[in-house]
Design goal:
The chain is mainly α and 383 residues long. Helices cover 60% and strands 4% of the residues. The strands form 2 sheets. A two-stranded antiparallel sheet has the order 1-4. Keywords: Membrane, Transmembrane, Transmembrane helix.
Length: 383
């Protein structure tokens, strides 16, 4: 991890402001849904789908992995264009960054008990690390056409595995929460002690479902390569909209026999989220980089340039606050974060869902203040 002081903007040829904005918007949304004031009172769009289907919240993580793929092309593109060679030092940097991300995710899972016998091994940062590692290597070692083919192969192979391979101990393929092939894989390799505790015997960021998540990253790589091409801006945007709509349509059609499901990261889900991400990035690119629209953009850019930092700290700090106990007037002892919410945010609201949303928005705004100061001081923490 390295703290640097860098310019707040770079030439258009080396950095897309729209990509920083789209990343920041995604991370801000991730923080919003991960930190409600009260987990018992949440508006439906801010919750994950219970199993099959999707909500806006289900799009946030795949959007981020898609952005990881796009960012890889800008960070490593020089090594596949002939202007530089991807030598051993570049590979080591990729491995080092992946290991750092993975260890940061493990630390969040360990904190504060640090009990290796029950700690959850997978996680959001762990999946980002694995997708970044695999997609970076594939970007450097394969061609654009090979990457396109790999997306299709990954999604079809995963579909066949999940729908045709009999699940050991069950006897037939299925997509039920605790008896599908991915769940069997998680509890066999990771064991129930090291998976997502609410699910008990499977993990939403588990091992087998990381395979199609790599497909999401590859869709981002294909998109980033197209954006870095010498084509005109109108042509780039037109094709992004066209391909985005076709990808979205493909996901909706595939949903008929391989349901959209975030926990399983189904192939239809990859296409749905990937298509919507392409459309979202195309709109941002047209407005911000082509039309030079700036109103309301820079706050999210501040989130975008320190995305991993704010995600990690936004997960760590509430846990630290939970260790500080405060006694309420009724004698009940709660964590500091819960105390602040109950004392200063919730009282003005009659609807507990509005209060819970206000708590989440307050948390995001606090981080905006911190990140805006960092952005103005040109402080970027590179992981």
């Amino acid at each position: 991890m390295k703290v640097t002081s860098t310019p707040t903007s770079l030439p258009a040829s080396s950095r897309l402001l729209s990509l920083d904005f789209f990343r920041g918007l995604t991370v801000a949304a991730m923080i919003l849904v991960n930190n409600p004031g009260d987990w018992n009172h949440i508006y439906a769009p801010l919750e994950h789908a219970s199993w099959h289907g999707w909500t806006p919240t289900d799009l946030i993580f795949p959007f981020f992995l898609f952005i990881v793929g796009v960012s890889i092309t800008f960070a490593l593109g020089q090594y596949v264009t002939g202007s530089a060679q991807a030598g051993r030092s570049v590979m080591l940097k990729i491995v080092k960054r992946s290991a750092t991300l993975f260890l940061l995710g493990l630390f969040l899972n360990f904190f504060p008990k640090f009990d290796i016998t029950t700690v959850r091994l997978p996680g959001v940062l762990q999946r980002i690390a694995l997708v970044y590692l695999c997609c970076s290597m594939l970007f450097l070692k394969t061609t654009y056409r090979q990457q396109f083919s790999l997306v299709g192969i990954i999604l079809v192979v995963y579909w066949l595995l999940m729908t045709l391979v009999p699940v050991p101990g069950v006897g037939f393929p299925n997509l039920e929460p605790e008896s599908n092939l991915a769940a069997w894989f998680d509890r066999t390799i990771l064991t129930p002690a090291h998976v997502y505790k609410p699910a008990k015997v499977w993990d939403p960021e588990g091992l087998l479902s990381t395979l199609p998540a790599i497909g999401t990253g590859l869709l981002g790589i294909l998109t980033g390569t197209w954006l870095r091409s010498s084509r005109s801006a109108p042509e780039k945007i037109a094709w992004l909209f066209t391909v985005g709509c076709l990808t979205l349509l493909g996901g909706l059609c595939w949903n008929g026999f391989f349901p959209i499901n975030k926990a399983l990261w189904t192939s239809s889900y990859v296409l749905l989220a990937g298509g919507l991400a392409m459309l979202g990035l195309a709109i941002c690119y047209w407005l911000i980089d082509v039309q030079q629209y700036r109103f309301g953009v820079m706050p999210f850019v501040a989130f975008g340039v320190n995305a991993i930092t704010v995600f990690f700290l936004s997960g760590l700090i509430p846990r630290i606050m939970g260790l500080i106990h405060v006694t309420l007037p009724d004698g009940k002892e709660v964590g500091l974060r819960d105390y602040l919410y109950r004392s200063f945010i919730a009282p003005p609201f009659t609807d507990p869902r509005n209060a819970s949303l206000a708590g989440a928005v307050t948390f995001v705004l606090i981080w905006f203040g911190i990140l805006w100061w960092m952005y103005r001081k040109r402080v970027i923490i590179k992981v």
